[in-house]
């Protein structure tokens, strides 16, 4: 049987490039981590870590229904009289 090629979504195609620089200790830590956990594709690993960090922060910052905002009555400010 001949395999069919799946049609990929063009909007998911990676066309934007970003560069990042590491110092010696940072790259050693990354290399050690990748070796320890048998990560072969460092590009995919870094992309997933960056995006997961961003999504986690978005999730934390998402407004809630009963968000506590400071008001005149619930601020913990000591006033000098």
Can you give a write-up of this model?
With 81 residues, the chain is an all-alpha fold. It has a domain at 23-61. It is 41% helix and 0% strand. It contains 2 helices and no strands. The chain has helices at 24-36, 42-61. The radius of gyration is 23 Å and the shape is flat. The N and C termini lie far apart (86 Å). The relative contact order is 0.05. The model has no long low-confidence stretch (mean pLDDT 85).
Write the layout of secondary structure elements.
Layout: H1 24-36, H2 42-61
Q: On the 0-100 scale, what is the average pLDDT? A: 85
CA gyration radius, whole angstroms: 23 Å
H/E element sequence: HH
Distance between the termini: 86 Å
Treating each run of at least 4 consecutive H or I residues as one helix, how many helices?
2
Strand content: under 5%
The largest sheet is:
none
Give start-end ranges of low-pLDDT stretches: none
Number of strands: 0
General form: flat
User: Could you estimate the helical fraction of the residues in percent?
Assistant: 40-55%
Name its key features.
81 residues, 41% helix, mainly alpha
Give a short synopsis of this structure:
With 81 residues, this protein is an all-alpha fold.
């Amino acid at each position: 049987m001949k395999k069919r090629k799946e049609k990929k979504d063009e909007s998911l195609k990676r066309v934007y490039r970003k560069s990042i620089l590491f110092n010696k200790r940072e790259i050693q830590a990354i290399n050690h981590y990748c070796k320890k956990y048998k990560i072969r594709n460092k590009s995919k690993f870094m992309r997933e870590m960056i995006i997961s960090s961003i999504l986690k922060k978005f999730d934390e910052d998402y407004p809630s229904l009963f968000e506590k905002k400071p008001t005149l009555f619930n601020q913990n400010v000591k006033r000098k009289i």
